[in-house]
Amino acid sequence: MKKKKCDWCLESQLYEDYHDNEWGKPLHDDQKLFEFLVLESFQAGLSWLTILKKRENFRQAFNDFEIDEVADYTDDKIEELSKNAGIVRNKLKIKAAINNAKCVKKVQKEHGSFNDFLWSYVDYKPLQTNFMTINDVPSQTELSQKICKDLKKKGFKFLGPTIIYAFMQATSMTNDHLLECPSR
Length: 184
Prior knowledge:
The chain has a single domain, classed as Hypothetical protein, domain 2 (Endonuclease III, domain 1, Orthogonal Bundle), CATH 1.10.340. Helices cover 54% and strands 2% of the residues. The protein contains nine helices and two strands, in the order αααααααβααβ.
């Protein structure tokens, strides 16, 4: 019996490539984790496909998500980003990305790395779920609520438990590939 991919990724080739090559693969690089956190926060209220289409523009606009560089952005850079048609030009989200870069730096000092801090919530290995259909997958969990609450205590902004759960899925903190998906 041929396995079928997660059905959410079948609406476009870009989605399918993202699913096959990135989504749900364990990610442990602080800079890449920061990138996903920023992109997930920019996705709020939009489709993930919109963000994927603008991803390269985001990378250029945000200096490849170099945490130290983003943390040092000035008001002039905020103005520049808010006029960049290649990204989502929401000033609150732009300011949150800068703020969150500063927060990542604090977490790195406290915990050694952003990776160690995040992955400690799942005992450094992906949580295994058993979802049969996309309708079985929750939009948030008690754990995403806890991580969100803890990040907010550390000063992070523009994050909610749904954004954190999407982040956990993307970085494989939780393996939400459907049971029949060959990427599982």
